[in-house]
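can u pls check wat happens w/ guanosine-5'-diphosphate-alpha-D-mannose
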Amino acid sequence: RVVHVILTGGVGSRLWPLSRRQSPKQYLDLFAGKSLFEMTIERNRFITDNVIIVGNRDNTHLSHKAMVKCGLSYTNIVEATPRNTAAAIAFAALSVNPDDVLIVTPSDHMIVGEEDYGTAMRQGIEKAKKGFIVTFGIKPTRPETGYGYIEYDDDQVTSFREKPNLDTAEDFLERGNFLWNSGMFCFQASVFLEELRNFEPLVFQKAEQAWLASNKGVLDESLSLEIPSISVDYAVMERSKKIRVVPTEFSWSDLGSYEALYDYLISEGYPKDDNGNIVIGTEIFTGFVGLKNTIFVYTKDAFLLVQKEKSQDVKKIYNMLEKHQ
Ligand code: GDD
Ligand code: MG
């Protein structure tokens, strides 16, 4: 059996005010009436119709609505509190048969090229059946520090480096034999759990305890709080010798920040003025004087003006508002 596991934990704070805690970016109908969540479900249903959603109490109803719209049934896992991706994936792996192959994907990436996607996934499934943990590599275009880097030679992974600093990222780009980690993985449930137990025994043990105490897929809060919070990249990918990579051909964007969203929109021919300023969320004429590469975001109860290069800092506003509410 092949199962698609969709992780939907984040709130997308760097895309405030488009993205809110009550309506995170992956559920927004930003793209021709479809959300990134729905598009993720759609592109994977050609590969399998077994779906596990790992989300939280705040977004269960949004996931459910999207699944009804897609006409697919699914298994729901509801985290009591976010414990990061190592634990989220462990819950999914604990809920299936040991030899089931899991395709784990985020719910908030833009991917164009359904056929190339299918090809990559089928290659991944074959490798996963042989006992490997498969990553999907993207050709890097800039020294991005928010991603993982896969050093590779054919399908062999010589090293995996999560979120390097800028100097290191620049060095990786120059050396040429590195791919970005797309954040999607494919492996047999038992292989993943074994590696998690090898490298992060406490995460494994506490996640298993919390899972065993769960009720209809809903995790217990106090047991969940005992699970160390670590991402799967640090916990397993950087350390395991079983990692392989499938280099991919599809176009991929982690629409995590306004900079990424801007680049995506511009590549799709979105209108900008002579100085690279753009407007999101309104048709009202908006003038920019003396500003460059500025993104103006209009929503019914909040505006944002952000310089493209400073996009990472939007989460500071989000965090400030969270604190004061
Ligand atoms: N259910 C659940 N629970 N989902 C979670 C949790 C959690 O506690 N934490 C994160 N997620 C979801 C996020 O919503 C997102 O869809 C996905 O897991 C990855 O988490 P991010 O927080 O977005 O990770 P990242 O962007 O810093 O880094 C990862 O993705 C990059 C590509 O976008 C890494 O895998 C990098 O190596 C990779 O390059
Ligand atoms: Mg991300």
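The CA atoms of residues 38 and 66 lie 6 Å apart.
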